Each structure stands twice: as C-alpha cells, then as structure tokens.
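dumping the sequnces here before i forget
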Amino acid sequence: MSIKIEEKLYTLRYKRDDQPHLIIANHQVCLKCESTYGVPQPCVSICPADVYSWDENKIVVAYENCVECGACKIACPYNNIIWKFPRYGQGVSFRYG
Amino acid sequence: MGNLPEFDVVVVGAGPAGSAAALSAAKAGAKVLVIERGPEPGAKNVSGARVRLNTVKKVFDIASVQIERKVVNERFLFVSQGRKVSIDIQTKPDILATVSRLKFDGSLARQAENAGALIVTKTTALGLERQNSEEISVVTDRGNVTAKSVVLAEGANALISMSLGIRPEFSQDEAVEVAKEVYLLNKDEVNKRFGLPDDYSGTSWEILIDSPIPAMGFLYTYRDSVAIGVGATIRSLVSVKMKPYILLEEFKKAINFGELVKGGSLREYSAKIIPEGGYPEWSICREGIYLVGDAAGLVNALVLDGIGPAIVSGALAGKAAVEGYGCERYEQELAKLPEIHSVAVSRPVIKTMLSDTSNLALYAKLIPDIFDAWSANDLSSLSYIKGKLPDLLKLGLNLLRVIS
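..and the predicted 3d for all of it:
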C-alpha cells in the first residue's frame, strides 16, 4: 500500500510564516527551464513536499508545505530560488527528525 | 566605541555540532550564546539516526544523553532484481545506538546550557558582518548581537556560510536527498518482529538497492517505533525525474517493509540533504568564523556517521573560538581528529561510488549475483565483472587508503 504525499505531510506540525521563505527570483527563467528540461522541472521533481508546481506556465510555490531540506536550491539549474529559513521558529517542526 | 562584544562566542545552530561547540567554549569559561531557529533544539533536524557512543562520550556526559536503543544487531542488505542477500552481524552493545533527534539533540543542548551557555530558540540567524578586528555582528530576525568569534553549526543547507562564500554550494553529485518515515509500533512488537531481547536493544539495517534507481537506505528501530529512509544523489533523482517519496515507496516495497510494520501507523515524514563533499576540499574558516558538522560537509558516508564528526568538530571549534585560532591552525587540528581524518580518507571511496550510479548499482547486484552463481555452480555468469574491474580496483585501492 502506497501512502500519498498528502498523508505524509499531514503527519507534520507547521507554523506558517506569513512571509514566504522561498521565492522565485525571475519567472522568465522558469520558462527557459521548462523548454530545456520539460515538465516536471528539477525543482518540481526533487521536492519531497510538493512545494513546487507548474501552473499555466508559471511555477507556483506552496512554501507552507516545505520541510526545509534545501534540495530545490541545489537542483535548480539556474540558481533561481531565493532560499531563506522561516522566521521566529516558524515553518516545520519534527518530533523524531 | 570601545565597547566589548556582548559574547565571546556566538554559535549558530543547536544541533550536535552547535551544542558541542557551546559546551566546550562554556567549559573554557567563555560567555556563549547559541542561536537556534527551531522552536527547540532538534525540532528542525533530521537524520537516520544512529550514533557511535564512544564519539559522543568524548564530548558529552553519556549518562544524560537520550538514546532510543543500543544496536545489538547490524544487518547489511543487498537487494537486486527481487533477490535479497542479508549479512547479519551481532554487534557489541555500547558501540552504536539509535536516536531520535528531538530527544537526543535536546539532551545535548541541556548539557551546553548547564555549562553556562545561553540558548535562544525561535530565532533565525541571517548573516554575519565583521565590525572590526575584535568584533563580528550576528544579524538575526530579532536584531543583532556581537561576538568575538562565531561558530557556524547551521547544518547542510548552510545559508550563511554559502552566502559569505566561505564554502561553495553543493553540486548535484555532492548532495544526497533522503526521504524518511517513522512508524509507531509498540515496544513488544518491535522486539518480536526484529528478534530483540528487550526494549533497550535495537537493530540497524543498511540497505543497497539497484532499482528503481541505485540508492542507499536504512531501517532503524527506535524504542516504540521503526524508522525507514532512502536516499540518492540529487543528480540521479533529477535525471530520471523521480520524486524522493516515490523512491521511498518503491524502496519499502522492495524490502517488504509493509509486513514489518503491519498494524503500525505512520507517525512522521521528513526529508534531508546529506553532504557527500566538503572539508578538506573546502575551506571552512574565515577570520574568527569556524564551520562545523554538516555545514562543513563533515559526514562519513562510508560508516554512515554525521553526528560523530559534527560533535568532534564542534568541540574543537568551541576551543578554537575561545582561544582565537587562526584558520590554518583550526583546519590542521581538525585533520588530526580520528573521526575527521576518516571523513577525509573515505571521500574518494564515496566519490567513486556516487560519481557513476552504475557503480552503486553494481555493488547492489554483485553480492546476490555471487550467491546465485555459487548455488547454480555457474561462476562464469560473473564474467561481466571483468569490464568493471578497473572501477572495482579503484574502489579497492581507495578502501585500502581508509584502512591503512
């Protein structure tokens, strides 16, 4: 029995930072990425929490799902993701880790 | 003007490396502040996790370190094309232990606190600015604080270290992405299913698979739960567009994990990047700023130990920060630590294994193939190894360097 990603993420505790901690620097670059790498793009496929999705020629960032691993920053071929950590202890927190 | 820095040492991150640094600096009499971005130490941290108690003991009082179970059985599992070869080793207790990070990291942080370090949680360090030769300003989301020296124990995704250019970003071959799950299962069931004599004895499995992509995984027993995880380099995942959690689902199927935790429930999902590159290839220091642990890429992928190198490097950096070591001296002293020396000499082995995923696939396949060839009395079926001999030889030579 496979477990869906929604169920996996549902096990986590999150406190949402109102200010997104992940920002696409330049959306034009994502169009170039799509034509070079196709879909899903590297950020979409590497993210373990489905933070990134491709919606009508635009990368949508559901940063509130982020488990803060940092893989997308490494996977993005254009260094186009501005990565910060959530502020004030917000974001994900683990019980076991 | 003329004001002294507010702290002798500011440590960024209250994981094992940060707490070790804070403990050693505080013990040396320094005024120490630890800045932790999570709601409590360990809350942002993910790993297998398994530690070598002798290494932990070098820095921390082991009596109050929280562990899950002591490993009495170590299993190496090779899975290829539906075949499994399992090698079981009875290990002496008191060598390896499984830990869950919130409890483990919390117990280390408390020792640093008891030694006099001040830990501030829910605070994210954003950057460092050198004020003058005596003072570094640490910028946080709650304002600035000044220190004589700074230890960056900020983990693998070391945003400050990278933004300052002290160390480079990871290449896609230098970082492994791991997805992990923890399943609740009562103690008696854990004991029964894994053949454990009591609630304090545990098992730890290291698993190599060649499908759906070559990957390395683990299964560890906690007190009342079972942890499972699998990782592959970011390059290998991205090149086939495979989601880390899809790899995890396929991995669980390949080792029949469902049966092992039948009746248990998924308690937590997590993910992490594991550094496979770093010191000594990187410089990990700059004028009063010392990198430690994952931030310095100090993971021993051969013996699967990140927490050990984190702790010993942290303790050294704490001392270096108090005594004001120059970078050359810090890196020289670091190289002398056995755990760090071992990281440095293992790196060529890991590079050989990870640079070409067909190598990793070969290792997963080779052992079941040997047993198949033996049972069929058809050793000639192993002749394909000939073409791989240069790679195997290279691996063998690199391994020799590790043990010599």
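The first strand of chain B starts at residue 7 and ends at 12.
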